[in-house]
Amino acid sequence: MTTKSVLTILGSLCIAAMLTLPAPAAERALEILDQPGYVPTPEEEMLPAEFRPQPVYFRTSEPPGTIIIHTEERFLYVVQENGQAIRYGVGVGREGFEWQGLLKVSRKTEWPDWRPPPEMIERQPYLPRFMAGGPGNPLGARALYLGDTVYRIHGTNQPQTIGYAVSSGCFRLVNRDVIDLYERIPVGTKVIVRQAAQL
Amino acid sequence: MRAGTATVRWGERPGAIRLTKAAGRGLALALTVALAGCTTSQDRGPTASALPAAPPNIVVASTDLVGDWGLASYRDVADRPRTEAEAKVACGNPYRIGPGSGGGVMMHLADQTETTEVFVKAAPTGQVFIGPQGPPGVAQDRLVVAYDDSSVLVTDWLDQSARERYGTMIFVRCGTA
Lengths: 199, 177
Prior knowledge:
Chain A is of the alpha/beta class. Chain A has helices at residues 3-20, 118-123, 175-184, and strands at residues 54-57, 67-70, 75-79, 84-89, 92-93, 101-110, 142-146, 152-154, 165-167, 171-172, 190-194.
């Protein structure tokens, strides 16, 4: 086998590998409508390994307990001691609904109520304008409200949206993970939302 | 920057959600699940389940339903009082029930974006239903759970899937005190 043919084969393998890699997080948008009332199965709530909560090394000057959300990565970090963090997979705002900033958790609720946005009611006029919290509610099991904005970190009844840009700016976790986060995070916690620089 | 304040850059809302290139297993899987979730109930068709309990002899006529209603839903009966309060607020975006050409009224069946003419139907048991022309208590019907003071209507979908997804629906007539 000649050197040229070996290089050709290696090049082909590299291209094939690149074609099978998942799309970068920044490109992962998803067209999906809310499904009020849908209750996912435990199997559906099993996330891909990279999006399950796990300890990671994380360098930051922020103190332990701070939440840092890297929207492009689709990860939420809770800073821990010794250069570590707990990392959660999240769904983030879709194109046009991205934002960044510094806020604090202003309040928390269990099983938050949901009010579908007007444009959703226009598409689905049979929807209730208010749905009391509970399983199947699109906001899921918990909500952590960010400052006095409309944004929240909340659960979801659509676990398949974790890792994608789907929302109107809120950050969503599967219910099991948002319950875990809710227990760790007190009101007043600093939340830093970061977007990657657009070049 | 003061603590508790935000530096927020607002994006412009696009006219529609953009679907990026369909690279990645996750997109295909998500679409499959989403479409399954959107179509499952329609493919299966409504299934009648055991009738929920409801008081008999509720007096309501189809013409009573015409008008604007604040619409909300709950699952736990303990949430009903505050859900009813929220339904009043929802009169800002009311659910409109118009008259039908056959003596009924125009309402949406579960998961349907177009209205259907429905009628108030009384069963021999005394229970009252709202649904398409035909016998009372069929799968597409709503059971009238309560009709209080002609201003608060509470219904449950007979179809178990719809009932589980949407909960108990409460309509509060708009324009009443």
